[in-house]
Amino acid sequence: MSKLSLSKEKIKVVLLEGVHPLAEELFRKDGYNNVHYLKDSPEPEALKELLSDAHILGIRSRTFLTDEILSACDKLMAIGTFCIGTNQINLEVAKKQGIPVFNAPFSNTRSVAELVLAEIIFLMRGIPQKNAAAHRGEWQKTASNSYEIRNKKLGIVGFGHIGSQLGVLAESMGMQVYFYDIENKLPMGNAKDLESLEQLLSEVDVLSLHVPSTPETHNMIGKKQLQKMKPNSYLINAARGDVVVIEDLIDALESGHIQGAALDVFPEEPGSNQEPFTSEVKNFDQVIITPHIGGSTQEAQVNIANEVANKLIKYSNNGSTSSAVNFPQVSLPELVEGRSRIMHIHENKPGVLEKVNHVFSALGMNISALHLQTEGEIGYVILDVNGTDVDDLKNNLEQIDGTVRVRILHGS
Question: What pLDDT, in 10s, does the model give residues 377-397?
C-alpha cells in the first residue's frame, strides 16, 4: 500500500451530477474521507470556487470544463468522466496542466445497444405513431407500414464497442447487418464491412449511428446523405447530437422519405432536468425522443462507477495512467515498502530527462526502477528510489525548466 505525500484524508474528491453512489463508497472504503458528492453541476463561477482546492474530480456529460475553469484548478490532478464521452473537457488543456482524464468506454455498451434494438423494433412496427394517436384517443388498428425486423437490413456507422454489440444482437433476431467504419474492423458474426458511407446509406432499411464527436463526424448526416438513404427508411442517432443536421432530418421526415427516427442526443440539450427541452422534432409522432439516456441503466451506472472510480483511485495511489484518454499511459506495480515513487510530469522537449538524472546524481540517490512514456507535448517519468526522505529531491525537480507537476508517494 502506498502512502501519499498528501494524505488521503486531505485529498479533496468532488463527484458531480449524481454519479452512482458506489463511486463515493469506493473512495471512502479506500481511505478518502474528504469526498464532496453533489447531485447536480454548479454554475461556472460556483464550479470554479468548488474546484479551486479539489484534487480529484468526477463528472458526467453536463459539466463543461472550459479552459477558464481548468486554468483555475491549480491542485487538480485527475478527472474522471463517468460516461463514454469526454468532449465536455478540453483534453489538450488538461494534458498540458498534467491532468490525466479517465472515462468508461465499455461499461454501458450493452445498455445503449439494447435501447437501439428496441427502437428498431418500435420504428418498424409504427409504434411511436400508434402510441401518440392512442394518447389522443385515436385507435389505429392497422398493419399499414408495420414490419418485422427479420431479414431487414441494418446499417451501422461506427463499428466500435457499441456498434459491434448492436450488430450481434440484431443478427440474433434475424437482421442482415452491414457496417462502415473509417478504421479496419473485424466483422462480428455475419456482418458485412462496406467500403463507403454512401454505399451503406443506399443499402439499408435502418441506419444507426455510433461515432464520436469529431470535426470529421460533425454534420455527417445532412441533406445529401439523407437523400441517398432508401425511401421509407429509418434513422437512429444514439451517438452525438452534432452528427445529424436536425433541420435536414425534419425536411426528410416531412417529405416522407425518412419513415421515422429515434434520437437520444441533440445539438443543444437542457443543462438539467429542470430546464425545458425545445426542438422541432417534437412535432413528429414518428420520432422517438429520449433524453440522452442510452447508457442510463442501473447496471451501466454501477459498472461505470466501479470502472472510473477505481481508475482514479489507482492513479492517486500509485500513479498508473492505463487507459487515460489524453495522457501517456503507464501501468505501474505497487510501491515497495521503504521506497518512494517520484512522478515527474513535464513538457516533452529535449534536455528535461538529462536534468532529472542530474538532480538524482547530485543528491547521490540511486534509482531502483524507472518508467517513461510520452504523448505529444507531455512526458511522464516515474522513478522509484530507496528511502522516504525526498523533500530536497522534490524541490529540485520542481525547479527544472519544463516541469508541469511533481508528485511523491511513499511505500508503507
Answer: 999 999 999 887 888 888 999
pLDDT of residue 150: 98
Q: What is the pTM assigned to this prediction?
A: 0.83
- Catalytic residue numbers? 240, 269, 292
Per-residue 3-state assignment (H helix, E strand, C coil) for the chain: CEEECCCCCCCCEEECCCCCHHHHHHHHHCCCCCEEECCCCCCHHHHHHHHCCCCEEEECCCCCECHHHHHCCCCCCEEEECCCCCCCECHHHHHHCCCCEECCCCCCHHHHHHHHHHHHHHHHHCHHHHHHHHHCCCCCCCCCCCCCCCCCEEEEECCCHHHHHHHHHHHHCCCEEEEECCCCCCCCCCCEECCCHHHHHHHCCEEEECCCCCCCCCCCECHHHHHHCCCCEEEEECCCHHHECHHHHHHHHHHCCEEEEEECCCCCCCCCCCCCCCCHHHHCCCEEECCCCCCCCHHHHHHHHHHHHHHHHHHHHHCCCCCCCCCCCCCCCCCCCCEEEEEEEEECCCCHHHHHHHHHHHCCCCEEEEEEEEECCEEEEEEEEECCCCHHHHHHHHCCCCEEEEEEEEEC
182: Cβ–Cβ under 8 A, 6 or more apart, which residues?
A: 216
Could you identify the residue written with the cell 479551486? 52
pLDDT at 4: 58
3-class DSSP string for 343-380: EEEEECCCCHHHHHHHHHHHCCCCEEEEEEEEECCEEE
123, 178, 228, 250 from 258: Cα distances, Å: 11, 19, 11, 9
Burial of 45 (0-12, 13-18, 19+ CB in 10 A): exposed
Residue 5's pLDDT is 62
Query: What pLDDT does 87 receive?
Result: 86
User: Which residue ranges in the chain fall short of pLDDT 70?
Assistant: 1-5
Cα–Cα distance list, 91 to 65, 122, 265 (Å): 10, 38, 22
Q: Which residues pair with 260 in a beta bridge?
A: 234
